[in-house]
Design a protein that fits this description.
about 400 residues, alpha/beta, Rossmann fold, 6-stranded parallel sheet, 14 helices, about 35% helix, binds adenosine monophosphate
């Protein structure tokens, strides 16, 4: 593979797989353009080198071929406004004569956006001949769609086989994601603390198992912590619990002990008499929660314990909130941990925040620019943390 930043794209037709799967409202207006702006530096570098850009993406989950609702034509005017003085063309079909003709006549400094790849079922099936047709539209293939890197689709993985290794590479966004993820999972400077939260143990089990072989400390917060307490015979009241994972929780605790990994559970909790924003609240030890009450956030002692671990760490991975941070009464734990991660980062630690709700949380508390990296790829980053090989990464490296 080539390195994007060293490559001169002058006079090249560059086929870029982006993730323009942006949310649209009923008037087809983009309600959050983060995915478009995240890939803008990649597009701009190619254009400023004097190359031309052919953008391909999916949008939504169309089931029955072309559907107006999922057309990428709704993105053209916003793309134009982001890129400024750049000619942006659109094709109504991502393959076929129109796409061939428009890409062939595309000049240096111009952009062509192809229609939704998922209007062909061949895209998600990873169909070879569909991938080959797409590949013919460009001289060079750039994958900048980290959000779909865990899918072995035609445009994210199979297509790479039709380019020699010097003609395929990650875009700037994808490269930043891969470098950050590798830094944490494969090159972590110790001590390495992983903070895992969220609702369910079952969703995070593969991540925890993978981290047991890598982390120095694993901090467990959120609803999933109570399954660990109950497994040890403790009183968790009406807190969230997966009774079918109690054995598993004990196995994780035992494995961590044998590997010398410190597991930290929240010693106290903010408890509530109902799962509601206007609930009565109190604080108590997490292993003595009275019946009728539930733990909805980590407490002050837990915050102090967790912060101490975070502040002595050199590498920090954070996935999942510490409590029901969507409600004001239960956001303090998540906010305090976000602040601790930010402080550790300011003292030289490398911190990566990835996966759904922890990203929402760090944004909510306006701390995204105080951590080393916030991943844009929810599902892809989670699978990477689980130790899986991501087809979109493997295809470029092959
Ligand atoms: P996840 O998608 O697994 O990261 O879970 C995130 C969700 O877990 C958020 O919506 C939180 O409100 C929820 N959550 C966090 N802590 C708790 C808790 N103690 N009890 C119930 N839900 C929680």
């Amino acid at each position: 593979m080539s390195k994007f930043s060293n490559y001169n794209f002058s006079s090249q037709k560059v086929l870029v797989r982006v993730d323009f799967n942006v949310p649209l409202n009923e008037q087809f207006e983009i309600t959050d353009d983060t995915r478009m702006t995240a890939t803008q530096p990649t597009i701009e570098k190619i254009l400023s080198d004097g190359g031309s850009v052919i953008l391909m993406s999916h949008l939504g989950r169309p089931k029955d071929g072309p559907t107006d609702k999922y057309s990428l034509k709704h993105l053209v005017s916003h793309l134009k406004s982001l890129l400024g003085d750049v000619k942006v063309e659109f094709t109504n079909d991502c393959i076929g004569q129109e796409a061939i003709d428009k890409s062939a006549t595309l000049k240096s400094g111009e952009v062509l956006l192809l229609e939704n790849l998922r209007f062909y079922k061949e895209e998600e099936k990873g169909d070879k001949s569909f991938a080959e047709k797409l590949s013919k539209l460009g001289d060079v293939y750039v994958n900048d769609a980290f959000g779909t890197a865990h899918r072995a689709h035609a445009s994210t993985s199979v297509i790479a086989d039709f380019f020699t290794s010097d003609k395929k590479m990650f875009g700037l966004l994808m490269e930043a994601e891969v470098v950050s993820a590798e830094k944490v999972l494969h090159k972590a400077e110790k001590p390495f603390a992983a903070i895992i939260g969220g609702a369910k143990v079952s969703d995070k089990i593969l991540i925890i198992e993978n981290l047991l072989n890598r982390a120095t400390d694993i901090i467990i917060g959120g609803g999933m912590a109570y399954t660990f307490w109950k497994a040890q015979g403790k009183q968790i009241g009406n807190s969230l619990c997966e009774d079918d994972r109690l054995e598993l929780a004990l196995e994780i605790l035992a494995k961590a002990k044998s590997l010398g990994v410190n597991i930290h559970l929240p010693v106290d909790s903010t408890i509530a008499d109902k799962f509601a924003a206007d609930a009565q609240t109190s604080n108590c030890a997490s292993d003595q929660i009275p019946s009728g009450w539930m733990g909805l956030d980590i407490g002050q002692k837990a915050i102090a314990d967790f912060s101490e671990v975070i502040l002595k760490s050199k590498t920090i991975l954070w996935n999942g909130p510490m409590g029901v941070f969507e409600m004001k009464k239960f956001q303090n734990g998540t906010k305090s941990i976000a602040l601790a991660v930010a402080e550790a980062t300011s003292k030289g630690a490398f911190s990566l925040v990835g996966g759904g709700d922890s990203v929402a949380a760090i944004n909510k508390f306006n701390l995204a620019d105080k951590v080393s990296y916030v991943s844009t790829g929810g599902g892809a980053m989670l699978e990477y943390f689980e130790g899986k090989v991501l087809p979109g990464i493997a295809a470029i490296k092959k």
